[in-house]
Design a protein that fits this description.
The protein has no helices and 6 strands. The chain has 99 residues and is mostly beta strands. It has one domain.
């Protein structure tokens, strides 16, 4: 399968208003990886370890469904009163074109 990269917004199925910006990358060696700028859980430092389904909508209007998504990295930082959270997921399957 060919490598690809999609930027877009990503959300959990039951939280359509909590959209997080991020990038989905795939290559045949590493598989799929979703890097998010933010967290699906409100509040600093709060993260989830597993998401059964993550829906995405890419900048070029493609619907993406990620299935069986294991968190592989969660990061939170506070510097000079500003907080930053990011997270990464590794989905087992990527479905393109529908939710």
């Amino acid at each position: 399968m060919e490598s690809f990269e999609y930027s877009g917004v990503w959300r959990l199925p039951n939280e359509p208003d909590n959209q997080i910006s991020g990038v989905l990358r795939f290559n045949s060696v590493d598989g799929a990886n979703l890097d998010l700028i933010g967290s699906f859980v409100p509040g600093f430092g709060k993260q989830i370890d597993y998401a059964p389904i993550i829906h995405g909508f890419t900048t070029n209007a493609i619907k993406i469904t990620l299935w069986k998504c294991q968190a592989i990295r969660n990061f939170s930082s506070i510097k000079q009163g500003n907080s930053f959270t990011s997270s990464s997921f590794s989905p087992l399957y990527v479905f393109s074109g529908h939710h």
